[in-house]
């Protein structure tokens, strides 16, 4: 009886907007000009728009980051938040929350698979994908039980870089430009060790503009 009850509970659909389609529903309706680029990501992209909105408006970019999201979330909402805008580029910055296990355990290969699917969807719709490295981080303050994940970020980045090379997709290496001697994000670029501050975003802007 307990087994049947547990299986029934497991089979129930999740309540609510799991992928957070609603976050940008109204904003998407207001986009009237084809953007040059859509930035798809998690909190790092989400906070980027908050920290420097002029970078996006001045360059005809739009941000579609959602805090806490893993690559699976982004893949699910990719059509609504990217394809429907028909941008020239999509800048994909994903993977931090996969490594942090926000949705549970996921292999780097499966994270890569989600990002490959986004790239393939982009190309099928005549959008040029750009893959970004996961930023350095050696302490997830929201998941302090996860140790040594800076090494896992490096492993995931190696897979992303190799796929980008083989698929002839630009690879933006924020990690090498921003890491400290412990493969973390130093205080000059981040106040919490994971999310860039204004200095960090300014460096990222300088780097990404070379690809756009």
What does this structure look like?
The chain has a single domain, classed as Rossmann fold, CATH 3.40.50.1110. The protein is 46% helix and 10% strand. It is built from 11 helices and 5 strands, in the order ααβααβααβααβαβαα. Helix 8 runs parallel beside helix 9. The N terminus is likely disordered.
Short description:
The protein is an alpha/beta fold and 212 residues long. The protein is 46% helix and 10% strand.
CATH architecture: 3-Layer(aba) Sandwich
- By CATH, the superfamily comes out as SGNH hydrolase
* CATH level-3 fold name: Rossmann fold
Q: How many E-type strands? A: 5
Q: Which structural class do the helices and strands define?
A: alpha/beta
Order the strands across the largest sheet as they lie in space: 2-1-3-4-5
Number of domains as seen in the coordinates: 1
Rg from alpha-carbon coordinates: 17 Å
Topology pattern, helix = H, strand = E: HHEHHEHHEHHEHEHH
Helix count from the secondary structure assignment:
11
Largest sheet: 5 strands, parallel
So what's the CATH class?
Alpha Beta
What is the helix content? 40-55%
Question: Which spans of ≥5 residues are poorly predicted at pLDDT below 50?
Answer: 1-13
First-last Cα distance: 59 Å
